[in-house]
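Checklist before submission:
- one chain only
- standard amino acids only
- sequence pasted in full

Submission:
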Amino acid sequence: MAGEAPAACGLANLGNSCYLNALLQCLASLPQFQEDLLASSDSGQARSYTGTLRECLWEMRSGASATVQANRALWRQLQ
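Returned file contents:
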């Protein structure tokens, strides 16, 4: 239906990723963060983190799945 918020979706639990998942969910709920991230351009080392974070946000917002899997790539990059 038009004007209806997308369904909530969770992030895949990757063992010790609960704190990362909580942080991602908090950041994703901030409209200014969403706008800035989606409007940013990638460059240098930040490219991999920014691009992966953007992919997580898109997957979370799409509501296409009950569980977001894109956080796996971010988790690997941070280890």
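Reviewer check: The chain has a mean pLDDT of 75.
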